[in-house]
Amino acid sequence: MNVNVPQTVPTSASVVIIGGGIMGTATAYELAKAGVEDIVLIERGELAGGSTSRAAGGLRCQFSDEANIMLGARSLEIFRRFEEQMGQNIDMVQSGYLFLLDNEADAEKMAANVELQASLGQSSRMISPAECGELNPVIRTDDLVAGAFNPFDAHCTPEAAVAGYAKNARRLGVTILRGVEVTRVIAEGDEAEPGSRRITGVETSAGPIAADTVVCAAGAWSKKIGADVGIGLPVEPLRRHIVVSEPVNFDPRRLPFTIDFSTSYYFHSEGGGLLFGAPEVEDTWGFSTQQDPAWLEVLAELMERRTPMLDDVQLRRGWAGLYEVTPDHNALIGKSSQVDGFMYATGFSGHGFLQGPAVGEIMADLYLDRTPLIDISGLSLDRFASGEVRKEMNVV
Ligand SMILES: NCCCC(=O)O
C-alpha cells in the first residue's frame, strides 16, 4: 500500500478512531456493522504497521483473569469464521497452545488457571511431561513437572486480520486515512469542573476533523493521545524481538504454539519454518524497535535449553516490535469518566492481537450504550485510581 495516495479528509465525523492496528480496524468494522455512520479511522503510517504486524499471532484463551479468558475465547470464535465471513485468509493454524512448566509453584498456579478456564467452558487441561513431549516432539521434557494445553487455541497472521477488517470496514462506509497523523485531540470544558469536559475533535497533519467521540487505539503510542485531553493512560512501550527460520525438515504445522513458561521463550510454525520469540535479559523500555544482536545470543541459550533438537535450524530474518504495557499487564478498555466522548482500547501488554475481535465488538457496544457480551468493567482506567488493579499471570 502507498501512503501517498491522495485521500479525501472529511472535516467532521461521528467517531474518530486513532490507530490502524487490530484494535482500531476491528472497532471501525464493528461500529459500521452496527449501523454507525461517518466513522473515520486515522493511521499515521500503514495499517498494521505499528505493533500488529510485528506480533507473534498467537490466539489463546489460556489466561488467569476471567475477562482475558473470555476475550480470548470470543476472539477465537471470530477468528475461526474470519475467512468465511470476511473473505480474507488469515493463515489460521489450530494446533493448540502448550505452556511448559518446569517448577511446582508455576504448575500449581497454572492448574488453578486451567480450572477457571474449564469452569468457563474452555477445553484447557493440565497434562504430564510425557504428553507435552508427544504433542511437541522437539522439546526437552526431562526437567518439566507438567504442561497446560488447550487444543482449540491457535495462531494466524496478524496483518492479514487487519487487512480483512479494513476491507470490510471500507465496504461498510468507513473512511480510512493512512499516512495522516493526529497531532492533537481536542476537548472543551472547564478542567476544574468535573463532568463538564467533552471531546470536540482532532487536529491532524491533513487538517482538523470535528467529532464527538475519539477512540484511542494507538497501542504503545497511547499516552500522548490521552495526555492531550488530560487523561493519564498508564501505557509504556517495551521492545520485544521475534525471528523466523528457513523451512524445517518436518511438518511444523502440527506443533502447538509452545511457551516455556519460566523463561517466556516461545515458538510456533510459520509457513514451513518456525517463529521464535523471547524477552531480552534486561527489558528495553521506549520506542526503539532497533534490533539488538545480543538478543540472538539470549535466544540461542533458551533454544539450547528447551529445544536442542532445533540447533541446526537456519534463522532467516527477524524484527522488533513494541508491547504496550500497563502496570498490571491488563488492558485498558472503556469510556472515560473524565472526558465525555473519549474511549480507549489500549495497554494490551503483549496479548492484544488475540483479543482484538472481541474488543472491537465491545467498543461498538460501549459506544451504543449496549451491555457488552463480556464484563470488562474491571478493565476500566478507573481501576488505577481506585486501587482495584488486577494482575494477569499468563503474560509472555
Ligand atoms: N506475547 C507474545 C507471545 C504470544 C502470547 O502471549 O500468547
TrEMBL record:
DNA damage among keywords: no
SUPFAM superfamilies: FAD-linked reductases, C-terminal domain, FAD/NAD(P)-binding domain
EC number: 1.5.3.19
Segments forming domain FAD dependent oxidoreductase: 15-366
InterPro entries reported in the protein's UniProt record: FAD-dep_OxRdtase, FAD/NAD-bd_sf
Keywords per UniProt: Oxidoreductase
Enzyme class: oxidoreductase
A Pfam family: DAO
Any one annotated GO CC term: cytoplasm
A GO molecular-function annotation: 4-methylaminobutyrate oxidase (demethylating) activity
Protein name in UniProt: 4-methylaminobutanoate oxidase (Formaldehyde-forming)
Species whose genome carries this gene: Brevibacterium ravenspurgense
Encoding gene, per UniProt annotation: mlr
